[in-house]
Amino acid sequence: MHQIGVVIIGRNEGNRLKNCLLSVVGEGQTIVYVDSGSTDNSVELAKSFGVHVVKLDLSVPFTAARARNAGFAALLELKPSIEFVQFVDGDCRVVENWLKRAVDELIAHPDVVVVCGRRREEFPNNSIYNRFCNMEWDTPVGEAKACGGDAMMRVEAFKKVGGFNSTLIAGEEPELCVRLRQAGGKVLRIDAEMTLHDAQITRLSQWWKRSLRGGHAYAEGAWLHGSTPEKHWVKQSRSIWLWGLLLPLLAIASAWFTWGFSILLLVIAYTLLIYRIYRYCRQRGYKSRDAISYSMFCALGKFPELQGQIKFHVSRLLNKQRTLVEYKSANSNNFPSAVSAKYKKYIAIVGSGFVADYYLQTLPLHPQLELVGVMDRISDRSSKFAAFYNVPHIYDSLEEILKDPKVDIVLNLTNPSSHYEVSKACLEAGKHVYSEKPLAMEMSQAHELVNLAKQRGLYISSAPCSLLSETAQTVWKALRENQIGKVRLVYAEMDDGLVHKMPYSKWLNKLGTPWPYKDEFEVGCTLEHAGYYVTWLTAFFGPAEIVSAFSSCIIADKETDVKLDVNAPDFSVACIKFASGVVARLTCSIIAPHDHSLKIIGDEGVLGIDDAWFYGAQVYIRRSINIGHKRWEGIWKQSLPLAKKAPRLGYRGSHKMDFCRGVAEMASAIAQQRSPRLSAEFSLHNNELVLAIHNALETNCTYKMTTSFEPIEPMPWAKS
Questions:
Q1: Where in the chain are the domains?
Q2: Do domains 4-201 and 466-718 have the same CATH topology?
Q3: Cβ distance 245 to 264 under 8 Å?
């Protein structure tokens, strides 16, 4: 049996580190995690897996090379007989059977000292920059000049050349490979899946910094080994200076004398460069769209790369120590309260359908929540879900979840008709419950759930949780500060367009699960979507007193490929009077053109947003002014800064919502022994209000509300 060691390096990787550790722990090899000054819970997380942790000295500048060398040294101390070492970046997951495959290749080829495989971007569709990374990782198979951060190496060969150059802030792997090849070794790229990488590059500024770092690496690599026969990275550096500085400078300098013709020539030159890269990408089999965008950004990348080249040479000439160029931030810094949380709550999911995907994609924002398992009545669906998201356990039944003493909160993501049954069973078993909307399809059932939770000393809350968003909290703060005077009227729109005419059967989540359109059409748009603004309005203006509503199924013969058993409302309009005296008109439909706007009308102006489904939606005020004999709504929008910067979420779609924030709020309330902001009474009241609007399809009358709730506290960061 050959001795294998694994060195993982990371800084603020959060849940990505957890996935990395899960992919290698339990394989029998010795594992070392090296932490470069993380400010999240990475160190504690690694220790919980039982791996050896090395914390780098904060007084010495961090580099990936330094971290890998430190990990390698610790590995040899723990087990001197190690023959092969697998280096892994903490934002990667090692693919099953890769370690064995890599060892087999090294044994079969004694002259090979480094083996690497296909590093694949795990979420290439989350951003255009992630797709670029995925293309970048797709290197040719065969003998190679270099490897990346994930590779298996012979220990003796690594020791012989002195390991990584710890002073390099980037490009340390190709530089090491230069020395390994000079010593007679070979680098082999094999046709095998190696790791899944989670770049999380969502902003142009991140891409720019990453490109700058690449330019710095090219400059330093050429400076160190440019005079050798292979002229390491000399060609790349010359190309950067040519396209990033010399040609633009020459074109601009001669523009006056050439009547601007030199600028035209420059544009033509860049077009030819882009076309050349495009042709190469197409020859590699990439789609035309990806090839075009990649080639254009390669050309644009010459400028940040030039910045990196200049940065290196200036530091070299001034004899300044190079510092790390970071393009990532702490994995959980989008929701700071999660970082500071000193508790851990364990959750289990019932229902792994379409919406479950969005909960899992935002779960990493809340490291105080740990998913222990998932259950679905369709076993294949739960198995696929668990494999995709590395869920530790698949429960065979709801009863198995209820018997698991580790589970604190059950996340009920089942079909609306099952909400009551599942939530009741969980409460009876002593579990807290966070349910997707609605709380229940009938008020008698909702009352029963709330009373049961109260009797058992448990919490039950219902989605949506968008009231906790940065946008909603900013609107609420402006109202408390009386920025538009006394509020009189609210117009809230929740129209989604003519959905049955859309290609809804092609709507898939990241896992490939289709949108449950039959359920959505049969439940109706009111129960599904009215709650987004209902929760805001009741929190802002207090309990509702009277509801006058009209609901109708305007299009009974919707174009669906399956027969609908129920004609639920596809249009609702409600006038709601709140205890505070404010009146709101709420419309909800899957017929009218898309409109998710909110207008709160006060004596001194209008406070509004364009879409409640975006946690970072702009909040604006239009001040009212008198001109002549008339009173006008302000002709310009005054943007209000958000009370806190909204998180950047790692998924694409018609919404940007942190689905797990409601669960995190419940977990916080449990830990602090307080009532959650989305309390049982609050959820019950909103359930009654939405059902009153929905049921107007049959009753078509004014409804007097019977429930109420205590005032809700705003989020701590949004208090005036």
A1: 4-201, 203-331, 336-462, 466-718
A2: no
A3: no
pLDDT per residue over 242-297, tens digit each? 999 999 999 999 999 999 999 999 999 999 999 999 999 999 899 998 999 999 99
pLDDT band of 657, cuts 50, 70, 90? very high
Rounded distance, CA 392 to CA 390, Å? 6
- Take residue 68 and report the two structure tokens written for it: 């890998």
Give the class (CATH, top level) of 336-462: alpha beta
Evaluate whether the domain defined by 4-201 bears CATH number 3.90.550.10. yes
Strand partners, 639: 620
| Strands 84-89 and 151-154, sheet pairing | antiparallel
Model pTM?
0.58
Are the C-beta atoms of residues 147 and 114 closer than 8 Å to each other? yes
Q: pLDDT of 520-547, one tens digit each? A: 888 888 888 999 999 999 999 999 999 9
Q: Looking at 450-597, which runs of residues are DSSP E strands? A: 460-462, 487-495, 544-552, 571-578, 583-589
What would the mean pLDDT of 553-563 be, rounded to a whole number?
Answer: 86
The model's pLDDT over 564-583, given as tens digits with 9 standing for 90+, comes to: 888 889 999 999 999 999 99
Which is it for the CA torsion 627, 629, 633, 635, positive or negative? negative
Token representation of residue 643 = 């009370």
SS3 content of the chain, % helix, strand, coil (to 5): 40, 20, 40
CB within 8 Å of 228: residues ≥ 6 apart: 178, 182
Q: Residue 542 half-sphere exposure, CB side, CA atoms within 13 Å?
A: 11
Per the CB < 8 A criterion, the answer to whether 639 and 669 are in contact is no
Supply the CATH classification number for the domain 466-718. 3.30.360.10
Q: How many Cα atoms sit within 13 Å of 285 on the Cβ side?
A: 3
User: Do the beta carbons of residue 515 and residue 523 sit within 8 Å?
Assistant: no
| Contact of 127 with 155, CB cutoff 8 Å | no
Local structure of 694: helix, strand or coil: helix
CA distances from 343 to 35, 301, 347, 465, 717 (A): 22, 43, 13, 21, 20
**Residue 450, SS3?**
helix
Pairing mode of beta strands 605-609, 112-121? unpaired
